[in-house]
Design brief:
Helix content: over 70%
Number of domains: 2
Largest sheet: none
Number of strands: 0
CATH topology of the largest domain: Tetracycline Repressor, domain 2
CATH class of the largest domain: Mainly Alpha
Radius of gyration: 19 Å
Length: 192
């Protein structure tokens, strides 16, 4: 067996390579044999860590540790106006999501193709993100009357931004963030 990474990092190397390949080709477009070849290991090594492609996909997302990362405090100035705090909240969430673009492209693309293996993984991520957005709104903009509704609106703008980014790859990501933040603030009706 050829080892492209030291034994202690083999699982992480497999996960990083799987994310790169699945994001580029979809989970159905990547075989376990292709993954093994790209990692420089035998197929048996892949199956040693991940008994199926669904388990591999779930591990790729789980490895990102979204549950703990979503509880990290966001850099929002509490002395700013409510509308500025909501704008800053959206931009911070957008920036974090863009850093995870490969995961979102994988989950959204596979879901659009009807890939059943991605649906529980995507749902688990949404189950984390929904309460996190509500909590961020409550903590960062306590003036908002219905934090859950605003959290849903924030997620809607986030996904709108990703769609815009996919259909117009030349569009500046900061522009998408600022326009999404403005739409969110106007939709909530916070005073400037």
């Amino acid at each position: 067996m050829t080892n492209a990474e030291p034994r202690g990092n083999q699982r992480e190397h497999i996960l990083d390579t799987a994310l790169r390949l699945m994001s580029a080709h979809g989970s159905t477009g990547m075989s376990m044999r292709q993954l093994a070849s790209a990692c420089g290991v035998q197929v048996a090594a892949i199956y040693h860590y991940f008994p199926s492609k669904q388990a591999l996909l779930a591990a790729v997302v789980a490895e990102r540790q979204y549950g703990s990362r979503l509880s990290d405090p966001l850099p929002i100035d509490p002395s700013a106006s409510p509308s500025d705090r909501l704008r800053d909240l959206f931009v911070a969430v957008w920036d974090g999501a863009v850093q995870e673009e490969a995961i979102w492209r994988l989950l959204l693309g596979e879901s659009l193709r009807g890939e059943a293996a991605v649906q529980p993984v995507g749902q688990a991520l949404l189950d984390l993100l929904g309460p996190a957005t509500t909590d961020w709104v409550k903590r960062c903009v306590p003036e908002v009357i219905d934090a859950e509704a605003v959290g849903h609106m924030l997620m809607g703008q986030l996904f709108t931004g990703f769609i815009r980014m996919m259909f117009d790859p030349g569009l500046d990501r900061a522009t998408i963030a600022n326009e999404g933040a403005d739409v969110l603030v106007r939709g909530v009706g916070l005073p400037e």
